[in-house]
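[job 4471] stage=fold_predict status=RUNNING
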Amino acid sequence: MFEEMKINPGLKQQYIEQGYWTEETLLECWERSADRFPDREYVVDDRGNRYTYRQMDEAAGKVAAFLLSNGVQPQDVVSYQVPIWSEFAIITIACLKAGAVAHPIAMSYEEKELIRGMNTTESKVYFGPTFFYKTDYEKRILAAQPELPFLKRIVLLDAMKEKEGSSITLTQILRTYQPLPREASPRQSGMALAVILCTSGTTGGTKGVMLTHDNVRYSEQVFNEELGLTEEDIMFMPAPLNHATGFHHGLIAPMLIGAKVVLQQKYKCREAIDLMNREHCTYSMGATPFIYDILREIETNGGGLPDLKFYLCGGAPVPGYMVQKAWKYGILLCEVYGSTESVPHVFVRPSEALKLNGTTSGRAIAGMEVRVVDDQGNEVPIGTPGEEVSRGPALFVGYLKARDITDGVLDEDGWFHSGDICVMDESGNIHIIGRKKDMIVRGGENLNSNEINDALEGCPGMGDHTVIGMPDDRMGEKICAFAVPKPGAEHLKLEDVIAYLQEKQVPKRFWPERLELIDRIPHTGSGKVKKYQLQEELKNRMKGCL
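[job 4471] inference complete, writing structure tokens
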């Protein structure tokens, strides 16, 4: 996988000379914090699990010993499909200790997505629960196993249900293995791959975003510094840990400074408030719906978050009224902007949150560059709309086994083309005004509207159709399908569409939440859908104008 990385040689040398990229790996960062803060808590979850740095080091060491004893070599991939549990952290640190590349997988991934992702990464080991939230994950991975030729071992987390097959459990590993001695951990460079995170895109299907130790470490060190965080801070993380938000900011950022992270396995608003207060959480980060719900709950049913200093909010623009509402309860609401490829590289500093008041996504973090360019890649004047591009030491190094897709978004000069349209002001703050990509950002999750639209093909009574994002205060966007009904199907309903998708076993997150019937889908001369016209049409219909 090393040879697949796309790194501009001049930038590489520059980042090394500036000290942005070093020989230090995330493993060495972990070891330093474990030595400095052995008795400080690192991870707490809402299932009653608490791990100090020493306890986490020991547990992860046992799992690392298991990995090495089962033939996992440096830069081999370990896949894990684990809820927002403390066990996720154990497996992540174990990967660092074993020199393996972490490959966290979304809980929503079903059999076909597992097979595709794990064969692309050539995963050697899989970790997953026996059962979680109405889903039998043991049954799912065992059904996929015959089509996973690289997979050597399956490890089950049996907290919710006893295993049925012969796979080893994480509990057995923690009981029977001795922690891997520190000197037995393979040593790598900062340029080695650390993690492959999954992301959706417009080019069809999920892609594996490759990030090195240098990429992740630099990003989170700078974030910690610019936010003024110390070992005394406590992060509340409600987002899935397989996302860049949860992985980078939930697990890595706290461990770099000896801080603590508090996890909630399934987000419930009042329970989240109580948990944050019980653990004295000082900051949090997640998609807009989380803080939207929290503010509404406090406003409606009382209470507060006296320890919470600020909330970093991503996945959708943050309106000014929400900034003001949060400040009523002493919380500075700070928008962040980025992607899995260029992890939030722009954000509103807490000290500027009230002044900017939801008018911008902020400016770049130290060391990251942001430009606004036209279709030819030329920088546009201040205040002129253009595509947001970024580069810097936190930027990804390509998509796994997809060089053509990498080349389509990561140019030879090291700029990542986001596909997002924005304007920049004189202070370097950017304001996102739209997307070139056909993405719907629902609750912080990127959904490919083309993929959703393809799933609608063949729906009885549906002629021409397309999918767009529908504005939503809480989720940022929801899924809206526009369709031309066939003769005799003029009364086509959303329930009919959902029943069809359910029968096709299309994942629920791809189901439209609104259906609009229309006489004709507007197209350009080249056949592309004029989605901006449909956005305007939907806006008028939602206002009751039509």
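[job 4471] summary: The chain has a mean pLDDT of 93.
[job 4471] exit 0
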